[in-house]
């Protein structure tokens, strides 16, 4: 992360400054560009990021942590991976977690202030053995971090360096990771200006180097126990409750951090299985955790009891020269009386501490809620029932307890024999012998057992080493559970409960509904190694295909074959009229062409009848009717009929193939339709000068009387011949001859009745 572009993760989180560095991860102050808020970004060191198994556990635990939404738990917002340059200048995909940024200090800082590194013979003088990382906060260092490349992680210490660090009470693995900025610790270590508010600083000043009051202790513990009650209800065990994993904000709110991360470290073969790596948690280990047994929520309550002890006494319940000796005391020894270390502690509060630190989980507090209730009662002077409080020497729980107080009860052949042993080193590693010898030499060398004791011890160690070697060579296995038919999230949880990691693979299935488990690979009942990755097959539903396109107009047989070719079947078949698609051919499908449908689905067909429904055109103008019919594929002919009963040009009849047809009747496609259209007859003209024809009915304007004496109707009609035909009704009609008959009023030239001959 050397430039501006590289310092923005996932195009959202801007890295601003380094606020913590540990053996496992670096912590940066970041800014969420999307939500405009400060966040803490924890990024695994590149050397660990190369381990696929650790990456898988880290991702799984980060997801579990993100599901915890409680006011006393530091929230996890997001996860991702970023390219980080390692010590070999190569890019490594490194996981990171984006968390809530808490402006405050750790509970450890309130109790002890600056981490102490001088060798005083006690683990707690080496920073409580918590493996606190160096915290960077000076302005100059922040500026350098913004402008320069993030320094590569330091190389792991050599065996010699590790032994020297262990002898000095230091943690060579430094495996603990401070999730958020401990501002008080930064001030103490680097002299930077303090960002701690006055109320919180007052609490630090009051408690620094001294026990806290019962009221303050109960307040801190209520926050811790509230977080544990919530996480335990979610099925998550913290496994690393200690003061450095508890933040106290400026307003006094308590927040527990590193949920899930502590579990990932406990599960990793690179941490809890190495003797030196126990330094970080040895002072707060439960007896069952020290023995390597499978732990439950009551282990967290024991660790919380250790924190309560430290709050009331300003020291952890057990101290020792090595992590092994501290772990041994958790298993075999009773803690000091709280009142001996702090006379101000009431008997009621002391009874709560003793019950919390009971070796037997069955006699311990059974829930965080019960623990918190006992604390509140103790503030009012109500003690835990004396019959319930542990008394006398407590015998260690486990298969190896019966062999007495020899050290082999903790490590070696007499250990419980389940889970991860406290030390996973081989017998050939001299460091193992050295630690055992250092623990046994001081008190037992003076007891005068002589060579008998050493011979027995050697046999015990050889037996323990052989047992440890067998444990390493043997692999713990579990059976893959049957998850078929489970909903996706339930199936993932079922595998997680079996200590298996689910790798989701979606598969199509004709019967199992989408988002439900089809099965696993390896299949259910198969024995696999603990923490193995199992492929969880989740149904995506049946295979889908698209209804074929371009089938309109095809015959039923062709359509059926096309559907079968893509894995579909013919469903219901119906018929409809159509103007173009031939009889028996496809009009459309249901679902429509191109629609995605599950493989094997039925597709309904709509075929053409070859008919067209005749429209209603009666009374329309023949031109409009013709257009309507031609659009439907008909051929139109017009037959005219003279009539005065209908509007000229309107359709008064329609027929197909010589038969009259009515609207709504189905007729064959492309039929010839004959429309009968009306026209009006022409009107006759009544001219005043109409001439008579041979029969006396001549209609011509200039018609003359013929030889028979019939006058026409013309205005200038003259008498024609000697027979005295009378002129018609013309105004200028003249007598023609001697016989001159007078024209009658009707234009007849026969001279009858009305005509008089005029003499010259």
TrEMBL record:
Signal peptide: none annotated. InterPro entries: Kinase-like_dom_sf, PASTA_dom, Prot_kinase_dom, Protein_kinase_ATP_BS, Ser/Thr_kinase_AS. CDD domains: PASTA_pknB, STKc_PknB_like. ATP binds at residue 42. The chain crosses the membrane at residues 451-470. SMART domains: PASTA, S_TKc. Its EC number is 2.7.11.1. Keywords: ATP-binding, Kinase, Membrane, Nucleotide-binding, Repeat, Serine/threonine-protein kinase, Transferase, Transmembrane, Transmembrane helix. It holds the Pfam family PASTA. One of its GO terms (molecular function) is ATP binding. The keyword Cell cycle does not apply. It is an enzyme of class 2 (transferase). Residues 112-179, 577-598, 678-760 are annotated as: Disordered. One of its GO terms (biological process) is negative regulation of fatty acid biosynthetic process. It catalyses: L-seryl-[protein] + ATP = O-phospho-L-seryl-[protein] + ADP + H(+); L-threonyl-[protein] + ATP = O-phospho-L-threonyl-[protein] + ADP + H(+). Gene3D superfamilies: 3.30.10.20, Phosphorylase Kinase, domain 1 (3.30.200.20), Transferase(Phosphotransferase) domain 1 (1.10.510.10). It comes from the Bacteria. This is non-specific serine/threonine protein kinase. It comes from Nesterenkonia cremea.
């Amino acid at each position: 992360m050397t430039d501006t572009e590289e310092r923005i993760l996932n195009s959202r989180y801007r890295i601003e400054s380094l606020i913590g560095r540990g053996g496992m991860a670096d912590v940066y102050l970041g800014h969420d560009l999307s939500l405009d808020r400060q966040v803490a970004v924890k990024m695994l060191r590149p050397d660990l990021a190369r381990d696929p198994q650790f990456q898988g556990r880290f991702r799984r635990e980060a997801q579990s942590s993100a599901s915890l939404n409680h006011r006393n738990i530091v929230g996890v917002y997001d996860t991702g991976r970023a390219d980080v340059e390692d010590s070999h200048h190569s890019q490594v995909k490194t996981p990171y977690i984006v968390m809530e940024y808490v402006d405050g200090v750790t509970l450890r800082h309130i109790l002890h202030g600056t981490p102490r590194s001088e060798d005083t013979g006690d683990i707690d003088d080496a920073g409580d053995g918590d493996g606190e990382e160096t915290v960077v906060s000076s302005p100059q260092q922040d500026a350098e971090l913004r402008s320069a490349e993030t320094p590569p992680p330091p190389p792991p210490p050599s065996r010699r360096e590790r032994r020297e660090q262990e002898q000095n009470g230091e943690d060579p693995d430094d495996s603990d990771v401070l999730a958020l900025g401990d501002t008080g610790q930064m001030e103490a270590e680097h002299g930077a200006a303090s960002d701690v508010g006055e109320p919180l600083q007052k609490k630090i000043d009051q408690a620094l180097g001294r026990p806290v009051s019962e009221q303050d202790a109960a307040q801190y513990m209520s926050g811790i126990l509230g977080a544990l009650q919530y996480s335990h209800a979610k099925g998550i065990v913290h496994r690393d409750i200690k003061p450095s994993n508890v933040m106290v904000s400026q307003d006094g709110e308590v927040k527990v951090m590193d949920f899930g991360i502590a579990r990932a470290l406990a599960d990793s073969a690179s941490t809890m299985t190495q003797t030196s790596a126990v330094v970080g948690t040895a002072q707060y280990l439960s007896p069952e955790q020290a023995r390597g047994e499978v732990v439950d929520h009551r282990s967290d309550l024991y660790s919380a009891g250790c924190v309560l002890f430290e709050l009331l006494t300003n020291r952890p319940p057990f101290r020792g020269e090595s992590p092994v000796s501290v772990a041994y005391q958790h298993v075999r020894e009773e803690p000091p009386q709280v009142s001996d270390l702090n006379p101000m502690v009431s008997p009621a509060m002391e009874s709560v501490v003793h019950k919390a630190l009971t070796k037997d989980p069955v006699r311990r507090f059974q829930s965080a809620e019960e623990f918190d209730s006992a604390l509140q009662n103790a503030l009012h002077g109500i003690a835990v029932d004396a019959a319930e409080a542990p008394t006398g020497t407590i015998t260690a729980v486990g298969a190896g307890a019966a062999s007495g107080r020899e050290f082999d009860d903790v490590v070696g052949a007499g250990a419980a024999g389940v889970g991860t042993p406290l030390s996973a080193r081989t017998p050939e590693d001299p460091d193992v012998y050295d630690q055992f010898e250092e623990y046994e030499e001081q008190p037992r060398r003076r007891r005068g057992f002589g060579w008998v004791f050493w011979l027995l011890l050697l046999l015990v160690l050889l037996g323990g080493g052989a047992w440890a070697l067998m444990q390493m060579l043997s692999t713990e296995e579990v059976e893959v559970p049957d998850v078929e038919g489970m909903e996706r999230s339930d199936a993932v949880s079922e595998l997680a409960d079996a200590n298996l990691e689910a790798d989701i693979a979606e598969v199509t299935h004709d019967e199992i509904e989408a988002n439900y488990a089809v099965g696993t690979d390896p299949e259910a009942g198969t024995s696999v190694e603990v923490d193995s990755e199992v492929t969880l097959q989740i149904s995506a539903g049946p295979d889908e295909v698209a209804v074929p396109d371009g089938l309109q107009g095809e015959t039923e047989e062709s359509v059926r074959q096309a559907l079968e070719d893509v894995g579909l079947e013919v469903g219901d078949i119906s018929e409809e009229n159509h103007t173009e698609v031939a009889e028996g051919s496809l009009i459309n499908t249901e679902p429509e062409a191109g629609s995605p449908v599950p493989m094997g689905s039925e597709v309904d067909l709509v075929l053409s009848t070859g008919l067209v429904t005749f429209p209603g055109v009666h009374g329309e103008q023949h031109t409009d009717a013709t257009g309507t019919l031609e659009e439907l594929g008909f051929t139109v002919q017009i037959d005219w009929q003279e009539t005065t009963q209908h509007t000229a040009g309107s359709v008064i009849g329609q027929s197909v193939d010589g038969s009259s047809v009515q609207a709504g009747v189905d007729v064959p496609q492309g039929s010839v339709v004959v429309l009968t259209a009306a026209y009006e007859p022409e009107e006759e003209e009544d001219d005043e000068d109409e001439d008579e024809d041979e029969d006396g009915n001549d209609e011509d304007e200039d018609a003359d009387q013929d030889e028979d004496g019939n006058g026409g109707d013309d205005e200038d009609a003259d008498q024609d011949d000697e027979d005295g035909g009378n002129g018609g009704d013309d105004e200028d009609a003249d007598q023609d001859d001697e016989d001159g008959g007078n024209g009658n009023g009707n234009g007849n030239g026969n001279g009858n009745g009305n005509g008089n001959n005029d003499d010259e």
